Amino acid sequence: MKEKNYVWKTSSGALALLLVLPILAIFTTAVGETNELFSHLMSTVMPTYAYNTVVLVIGTMVLSLLFGIPSAWIMAMCRLPSERVLQWALVLPLAMPGYIVGYIFTDWFDFAGPIQILLRDITGWGPGEYWFPDIRTLPGAIIVLSLVLYPYVYLLCRAAFMEQNVSLLQSARLLKCSPWESFRRISLPLVRPSIVVGLSLVAMETIGDFGTVSYFAVNTLTTAVYDTWLGYSSLTAAAKISAIMLVVVILLLSAERYSRRKQKLFQNQFSSREDFRYELAGWKKWLALTWCWGLVCIAFIFPLGQLIIYAYKYFAQSWTAEFREYALNSLYVSFTAAFFGVLVALIVNFCQRVSPGGKSLAFMRLSSMGYAVPGTVLAIGVMVPVLFMDHFVNDVAKYMDWGRPGLIFSGSMFAIIFAMVVRFSAVAIGSIESSLSKVSPSLDMASRTMGCNSNTMLWRIHFPLVRRGALIAALLVFIESMKELNAALLLRPFNFETLATYVYNFASDEHLELAAMPAVLLVLVGLVPLVIVNRSLEHSH
Q1: Distance (Å, whole) CA 403 – CA 145
Q2: What is d(CA 315, CA 518) in angstroms, rounded to the nearest whole number?
Q3: Residue among 224, 275, 408, 419 nearest 333 (CA)
């Protein structure tokens, strides 16, 4: 049995090393020479890129707080009409990729868009006779990203509000506290850990965004990586910028963990049949409904409705052989990434199960690190070892007089699938870890007394019990891979498109109408994990 456990630990360690390899490759490549290109960038454009990135992150975090916390408190602490629909509708903007919302808002607010046309019709103003804010700016990017990322804050804070002790809220009422005083003095301080976690997720997603800032012509560190690699053909300089971004992400994660180092949660909700929520009436009720439904409409319903209208009008032009080909490409890449992501998750989780200890836990955590890495940065990290393998294979083939096989790894779907597995294995690991933790250890002991080895125990006992968790894990990895844009843009082979890159290319060329149908498909696919998350949140309360 020890020999079998050794095999599992070795397999888990090898997978952890493989998945963390892109991160190591970024730092090792960053120490190389760049022919003064990086120094030139640092002395000219990098300060502006860094400033834009900081302002973008801070602005998005502040607006996400403004959108997310009031909505979470209203849904958790107040009784409203249509609350059962609202509580999950407020999560829907997370399914809408930021760059798609940016394209639609630009279409609406541009000079030739319906809003400015209506303004000119009403006022009689002509071109140049009035001022109208430009959406394709840094503030516009902040607004768009906040609208699609605030659900991170909303979800975590709503769960934290719902878990608060009923007796505290009852005591606040006995002390004649108004709903505002109860929120400010009791509820808000208790959810600060959830706020920090939600903001860290918003910050990491904002740092890694490429589609929105690229379309809005806002130069950030992410666009700097893209331009340096493809514009200057300098992988080393791009790796240096990626290393800076990776350090920032690590600092964000460290700050989030440091802020929770002494956190102890004692305010679990007591079981009570009493509905302790506030009953809003009059203008307060209508203000709360307008706020919540306004967010849902602006961030999801109206943009999706616009996409559906375009998809219907331009169906004949959109339903092409290219669209079907790229949809199949996305399905193939996503299915493959989901299969290997679940396989990795099963191996590292089962290793921790049969051989618990610091090493097994470290292997599992290392395998999950890729999820925190922005897609553009990860693409740099993946390309370095993939190019090394290509050169190695070609050198060996040349030495053996077999002829040059070409770009086997970087010129095929291997690189993009590898990037998806590195980035989204954490999703599968978390899902299967949750399912496996519910399997009683007594089953392990019983199977061992019956002579089952580790392999038999996994496939005959554990896997049937965690099968539902594995299916959910595969579904989540599949959906995230379908939506991934940054890594797909940089790692796709020649003449290869996914639905995400297909939408990006059309919208970047100002052909939003032709991008509408694949965009609708991506949004509908993105709704699936939100339904799963919301159902689990409802069942837990």
Answers
A1: 50
A2: 11
A3: 419
